[in-house]
Amino acid sequence: METTEVTTRSTLKHVLVVDDDELVRTLTKELFERIGCTVAVAENGNVALAEILSRMPDLIILDIIMPEKEGIETLVRVKRDYPNLKVIVISGGGRKRVDDLLVIADRFGADVVLKKPIKSAILIDHAAQLLWGRRLTRDETDRMSN
Fold first, then answer.
1. For the whole model, what pTM was predicted?
2. 41-80 pLDDT, tens digit each
3. Under 8 Å between Cβ of 32 and 136
4. Which of 6, 7, 48, 83 is the most buried if burial means most Cβ atoms within 10 Å?
């Protein structure tokens, strides 16, 4: 797998992916590793909060609907305890409830809210803006897709 290094050694970023779906966690982890990030994963909010204590991420990718501690509850806790920590909230499905939850997440401080399914390039573009303050170049996104 080819890596598209967006980072330099001094700007290496750590991302925490929180989703109860193992496939989503794995694919999102691989996506961020391809742009040079270190990545931790958690299957619910409780595990995510423990992971934050272990190693503070620069960005959290947070699903809303999960068992145990769900995403909105986790977002509220993260933004209360770490107000500068960047969070992208995601959720899927065509249900009205998902749309409502994304609006609630936005109100509770999510930096970006995205509805699944999400194209990889869109997720990485939002993440790059939060992590490095810039969008990826077309060459960077093209190399990432290959």
1. 0.86
2. 999 999 999 999 999 999 999 999 888 888 999 999 999 9
3. no
4. 48
Core vs surface per residue 10-36: b (16+ CB within 10 A) or e = eeebebbbbbbeeebbeebbebbebbb
Q: What 3-state DSSP class applies to 5? A: coil
Is it the case that residue 4 has pLDDT exceeding 60? no
Rounded Cα–Cα distance for residues 10 and 62 (Å): 25
Report how far residue 77's alpha carbon sits from residue 72's, in angstroms, rounded to the nearest whole number.
9
Residue 70 exposed, middle or buried by CB count within 10 Å (0-12, 13-18, 19+)? middle
Which tokens in the block code for residue 8? 């330099």
Cβ count within 10 A of residue 82: 14
Q: Other C-beta atoms within 10 Å of 85: how many?
A: 17
Cα gap 134→127, rounded to integer Å: 9
Q: Thinking of the domain 9-135, which architecture would CATH place it in?
A: 3-Layer(aba) Sandwich (3.40)
CB 43 within 8 A of CB 28: no
